[in-house]
């Protein structure tokens, strides 16, 4: 599956990139699977996803939980809890 | 009541008076206007600036969803939300919410709801720039903000 | 936190933007400004005007007492209340409350409290002037306004 | 006892005067006594105070209940429930 990934705030800083296009293997079916898979890519990803419970995710501009399915997703974003307002 | 929703995400400052006028001028059915303006504070002189990062596209979409929810819950004639991004120094405004209604309680509650949800769901992140130390930390989300947003959840 | 209280009772319109500036300009410790503006509505085209009678002397004193109570209950840096009297036509503003604080919840609650108490304790009375009939009725106090003020009573 | 009386809104209209200086007899010691005494003055006063329970009162610019003592009062005001804001 081909996905556009977007990273924000310290997730972006630790990965060292604002985003990328990636082909993810078929066994990666949920947001949580994707986090685990990314965390194994290198030290930067490992640092970004060291505490997966606090990572927020969005699929195609909508907040989702970690158990959300990736099927049909075009853009998946990962970021820390929001601090706007 | 049909509610006119206006959402803007922009780096430049906004004009709260002009936004208020858009909600009230030339109409005689608005009884109450509540505005909230959030400013960058200097935290006792220790903060030099905040840099607000946002998720373009999702920021507009998410604030739009929050506004639609407010318009569904309260009888509003207009609801405006403007959120800045980029570098903002102490004393400058960051966010504006303005809610117009025929009833004061609706205007107060809708504006307060908007702010609680903007804080916890709008995809913005603040990075601090400390006085004398340009490498600051990312602001941490507050449990009190989650609790404030939780107030509005329906049973 | 010391709170600067400004109270004005006047026939002429007010400038909400100017009042907001007085609460925020030149300072970097204000994080939140909430303003409430109450307008005269035309009630579906049936109302030609309202005439607001007030009790000079007591109006200033009572609104001052309400503001002191708000400043004691919430950490405010500034609190402004302006109430007009005389003849006011639909679309014109009647009342302004502006509350500045370092915290948004304090600013929202103080402004809402001020309005609930202004409605039920400030000595003002509205007389209606109906379209096509210059002899209107005095507006009747609403039980919902008493209930709104009752929310703030301490146990 | 000599008092300055002030009337507002429909209380003022029914009495036909915005206020007056009055000497009240010694047996009138509370706000409630004063309302009863005024209600007997003429038809206008009677109409103004026909429903004494809804009449609000202030002594020297402060809200008071009907059982408030008049001792020491300079200015006493009567009016309907407030409708400002």
CATH second-level architecture of chain A: Roll
Number of helices of chain B: 4
Structural class of chain B: alpha+beta
Q: Give the percentage of residues in beta strands of chain A.
A: 25-35%
Largest sheet of chain B: 4 strands, mixed
Q: From the helix content, strand content and strand pairing of chain A, which structural class follows?
A: alpha+beta
Largest interface: B-C, 32 and 33 residues
Count the beta strands of chain B: 7
Uncertain residue segments of chain A: none
Which bin fits the share of residues in helices of chain B?
25-40%
What number is the mean pLDDT of chain B? 95
The count of β-strands of chain A is 5
Provide a descriptive summary of the structure in words.
The complex is a heterotetramer, with two copies of chain A (85 residues) and two copies of chain B (155 residues). Chain A is an alpha+beta fold and 85 residues long. Chain A has helices spanning 9-15, 31-39, 43-48; strands spanning 2-7, 19-23, 56-59, 62-64, 75-79. Chain A is 26% helix and 27% strand. Chain A has a five-stranded mixed β-sheet. Chain A is globular and about 35 Å long. Chain B has a single domain, classed as Aldehyde Oxidoreductase, domain 3, CATH 3.90.1170.40. Chain B has helices at 16-24, 58-73, 104-121, 143-150; strands at residues 4-10, 32-39, 47-54, 76-84, 86-88, 93-101, 124-130. The model of chain B has no long low-confidence stretch (mean pLDDT 95). Chain B starts with a strand and ends in a 5-residue tail after the last helix. With 155 residues, chain B is of the alpha+beta class. In chain B, strands 1-4-6-2 form a four-stranded mixed β-sheet, with helices on both faces. A three-stranded antiparallel β-sheet of chain B has the order 5-3-7, with no helix packed on it. Chains B and C meet through α1, β2 and α3 of B and α1, β2 and α3 of C. Chains B, C: Pfam families: MoaE (PF02391).
């Amino acid at each position: 599956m081909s996905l556009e990934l977007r990273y924000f705030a310290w997730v972006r800083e630790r990965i060292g990139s604002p985003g990328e296009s990636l082909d993810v293997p078929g066994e990666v079916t949920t947001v949580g699977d994707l986090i685990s898979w990314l965390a194994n890519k290198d030290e930067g990803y490992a640092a970004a996803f060291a505490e997966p419970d606090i990572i927020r995710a969005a699929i195609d501009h909508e907040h989702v939980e970690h158990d959300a399915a990736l099927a049909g997703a075009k853009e998946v974003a990962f970021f820390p809890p929001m601090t706007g307002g | 009541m049909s509610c006119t929703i206006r959402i803007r995400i922009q780096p430049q400052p906004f004009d709260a008076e002009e936004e208020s006028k858009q909600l009230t001028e030339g109409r005689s059915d608005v009884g109450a206007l509540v505005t909230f303006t959030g400013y960058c504070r200097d935290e006792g002189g220790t903060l030099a600036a905040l840099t607000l990062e946002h998720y373009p596209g999702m920021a507009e979409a998410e604030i739009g969803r929050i506004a639609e929810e407010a318009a569904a819950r309260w009888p509003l004639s207009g609801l405006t939300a403007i959120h800045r991004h980029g570098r903002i120094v102490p004393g400058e405004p960051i966010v504006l919410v303005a809610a117009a209604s025929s009833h004061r309680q609706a205007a107060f509650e809708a504006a307060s709801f908007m702010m609680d949800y903007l804080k916890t769901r709008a995809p913005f992140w603040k990075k601090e720039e400390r006085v004398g130390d340009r490498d600051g930390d990312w602001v941490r989300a507050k449990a009190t903000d989650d609790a404030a947003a939780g107030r509005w959840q329906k049973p």
